[in-house]
Amino acid sequence: MKKITIISGGSSGLGLEMADLLVNAGKNILILGRDAGKLGKALERLNKHTGSGTAEKLICNIGEEGDIKKLGRFITENNYVVEYLFNNAGRGLFTKATGSTSDLIDAVFEPNLKGLILLTSEILRITPESEELTIVNIMSTSALLGRAEETIYCAAKWGARGYTEALRTELKGTKRNIIAVYPGGMRTEFWEITDHNRDISGFMDPAEVAGKIIHAVMVKDRLAVTDLTINRK
Questions:
Q1: What is the pLDDT of residues 91-104, one digit of tens each?
Q2: What CATH number does the domain containing 134 carry?
Q3: DSSP character string of the chain
Q4: pTM score of the predicted model
């Protein structure tokens, strides 16, 4: 069986930076995303590496159960086994609490919480218990702090944090490792979509954040990282 690493939201930003580092380190990567064009451009970048790592892409809306089942079939039919799962996909929203609507709640909860749960559940289901699996849930410092005009976003991220903690408890003593990552603001298109007026010039470089995460996850010794918070100085 071929070991692979899955990265949701892998076509841009932090996800793509992590994929780049992992392919360069010899890992076999499968990036997930909803935009075929962005996935194609990301794959072109990843395929420029000449090392032993490989990269593939799959169009997948992690908030759609049908897409998740399609992903599960793709993995099993290709005789893959997931070694690392990076739950990285997400969407932000900045609005007054009085502006909450059902559509906005669904739009934010789908990638940040529902999709994370669906994807994790499927990978757990199809990964043999004899194989070691590391699940890295990349959330936000908004999962640790309540912030004004982020009520829906914080609710989704706090839900993801609760799920992560409960999952860790449920899987204790198995070959499943759960790592929670809480990065602060980064200079990515996340802000272009969610907040056009914010000055992000002092925010973190996603490539540097990716390096911190990959180092913490991949270094194998007697000590294990379970929670990682990354902030700018």
A1: 888 889 999 999 99
A2: 3.40.50.720
A3: -EEEEEEETTTSHHHHHHHHHHHHTT-EEEEEES-HHHHHHHHHHHTT--SS-EEEEEE--TT-HHHHHHHHHHHHHTTEEEEEEEE---------GGG--HHHHHHHHIIIIIHHHHHHHHHHHHS-TTS-EEEEEE--GGGTS--TT-HHHHHHHHHHHHHHHHHHHHTTTSSEEEEEEEE--BSSTHHHHH-TT---TTSBPHHHHHHHHHHHHH--SS----EEEE---
A4: 0.91
